[in-house]
Amino acid sequence: MRASLIVIRALVRRALNEILRVPGAAIPGVLAPTIFMLGLSSVFGEASSLPGFTADDFRTFVVPVGLLQGAGFTGAATGVNLARDIEQGWFDRLLLCPAPRTTLLTGVVASAALRALLPATFLLIVAFSLGVHVPTFVGLLIAAALVMGLACAMACFSVTIALRFRTQQAAPLMQIASFIGVLFTTSYAPKPLLTDWLRTVSDINPVTHVLEGVRQGFVGGVAWEHTWPAFLSIALMVLVLGALAARGLRRYGV
Amino acid sequence: MHELAFSARVVWALALRSLRGALRRPQFLAPLVIFPSMFLAVNVGGLTRTTALPGFPVVDGFLDFQLAGALTQSLLLGGVATGIATALEIEGGFFDRLVASPIPRTTIVLGRLLATGVTAAGQVTYFLLVGFLFGASVKGGVPGVLVVYLIGIVAGVGFGAIGQAIALRAKSASSVQGIFPLVLVVLFASSAFFPRNLLSSPVDTVAKYNPLSYVADGMRHPIIDGVGATSLLEGVGSALLVVLVAGAIALLALRGRLREA
């Protein structure tokens, strides 16, 4: 157990070191969610004056979308980095170490959870400085936990793709999944204002619960009825996608 | 005259090579339509009721309004793809082999831009077909469709020239890829996705001076209203302005690159 923790810690530190060593590669992923939030609120801001819109300010309404987008991008980047490690042979060397493969997977995925806090922090600093409603401490804590959880789920998915295709050229596939997951929800408007097809998709999409869980701190207040479905959805996504990634890792190189 | 014909043949050959390369690696072409299509779907699905906002132009549906926005986004991504392809040629050494060959230097830039123009025509076709499939219509009829093609192709070439200029300066594909957030900024600071009079301040002011607004509105007008002289002139004029300015910068960047070689 202790040995596994040391390996996980080393893998997390390696992933965090990358941010400092190659900041140019991390900057677009950190900036994009904030740009997206600012852009959406500047362009579609008037939507909040529609009857039935649950927030007074569109910017406050889309901040949670930006937070989850940052988590999605980070998860996808984890897969892209793994694909690069596979291409360069580093991952094969890693597999030679006497650690269980699930430990290696945990290390890679845990690094995504921590890295996701970087775009989230940047986004929140910009949003709060622009006057977005500051949630309560509990609301922020729930948002941070859900952002980290979604980054883990997306990292599991992109790791599965990286292990399957073993090339960085599969990056768009990883990014599109997070894009669909986060945006095909109640990202732009409350459910009653969505078109029928998007309402149906958002009903099926588990990320909708996660988004509502993050959003409750910003719009309205923290309520148990929004909290438990969010955490249950995250748990199920991590469980299913984690199992797929673990299966891919077990089969890798066999 | 003979030299001009020779240059035209070289441009054609380089354009064909670029197009074949793009078709061989569809993973570079797919994002040009996939991401804007997703964005189009989410925008239409999530904000369709905004057509009821006071000040929103009269449209048959939000999809009709959003088509030009998706097209503009796709063409901008096409410009990034052109830059990445150019940077990959520099990284791979093909650019140096071209420089060493007895061809006019400007054909290196023009060949890639011709291919970008052909790709832009494909992007316009794709989005018009998607629009028709989901119930959109072009109010301007066949002339309206031709206007959309004209502005789309010219703007696509202009965005490609911007991508090339960046690639010739940066020389690395990853650096060109890094301009993606900037593409988002330019796009959101325009009226590509929403009427200019409904944009928040200060984006509404920036959008007034952003040529992208006129490119998008130039393509939108024939779709939602019909062919009009003002929007046509503004759209074509803005697209040509992008081509001329970005083309000049790309040629200057090429000169700088040749001096270094």
Short description:
In chain A, 76% of the residues lie in helices and 0% in strands. By secondary structure, chain A is mostly helical.
Description of the structure:
The complex is a heterodimer of chains A (254) and B (261). Chain A has helices at 2-21, 23-44, 58-87, 90-95, 101-115, 117-129, 137-165, 171-183, 196-204, 207-215, 224-251. Chain A has 254 residues and is mainly α. Chain A has one domain (2-251). In chain A, α1 (2-21) crosses α2 (23-44), α3 packs antiparallel against α8 and α7 (137-165) runs antiparallel to α10. The longest helix of chain A is centred in the N-terminal third of the chain and has 30 residues, at 58-87. The two termini of chain A are 25 Å apart. The mean pLDDT of chain A is 89. Chain B is mainly α and 261 residues long. Chain B has one domain. In chain B, 80% of the residues lie in helices and 0% in strands. Chain B contains 11 helices and no strands. Chain B has helices at residues 2-24, 26-47, 62-92, 94-100, 106-133, 141-170, 173-177, 180-188, 203-209, 211-224, 229-260. In chain B, α3 packs across α10 (211-224). Chain B starts with a helix and ends with a helix. The mean pLDDT of chain B is 89. Classes of the chains: A mainly alpha (254), B mainly alpha (261).
